[in-house]
Amino acid sequence: MTWIEQFLAELDREVPRSRHALEQVPAGKRDWKPHDKSMAFGYLADMVATMPSWLAMIVSQDSLDIAPKEGQGFRPPQSTTSTEFVAALEDAATQARTALTSVDDEFLKTRWKLMQGGKVVGDMPRHVMLRETINHWAHHRGQMTVYLRLMGAKVPAIYGPSADDSTFA
């Protein structure tokens, strides 16, 4: 199995899990935080919805500056309903699949840079950055399910049943 096939298969597994989590987003909680130092729930849900598009950026761009000295860095859309979050996820997943099917494993060996304010903070082969991004996505989805629990919303089954969802996803 090629790296491309592995990443596409992983998208096929992880997108439905993220969709299931985003379907649980309660209305009116965009600015909710469990702690002053925590990120707002809406921003976190936006990240879970749009992180597959980061895979497309890793394939289609040679670098990304998340805090450029001039202009604005990447900002996810600000969805407000579970329907909008799910639509953003579907769009991001389509972008990822399109980008991944446009290249081959040899291309994934080329380097990609993550920058902040013009400073390189990550420089690695694209296949490594793709893996890091998928792990990052799973991390934030897990964080989002903790927020759901703390808000009193249902926690979906992700890799197995939860206290609120007995399905084995």
Structural summary, described in words:
With 169 residues, the chain is mostly helical. It has a single domain (3-151), classed as Up-down Bundle (Four Helix Bundle (Hemerythrin (Met), subunit A)). It contains 5 helices and 3 strands. It has a 3-stranded mixed sheet. Helix 1 (3-22) runs antiparallel to helix 2 (41-60), helix 2 (41-60) runs parallel beside helix 3 (82-100) and helix 2 packs antiparallel against helix 5 (126-151). The radius of gyration is 16 Å and the shape is globular. It starts with a helix and ends in an 18-residue tail after the last helix.
Indicate the topology.
Blueprint (H helix, E strand, L loop, with lengths): L2 H20 L18 H20 L2 E3 L16 H19 L4 H4 L2 E6 L2 E7 H26 L18
Parallel strand pairs: 1-2
Antiparallel strand pairs: 2-3
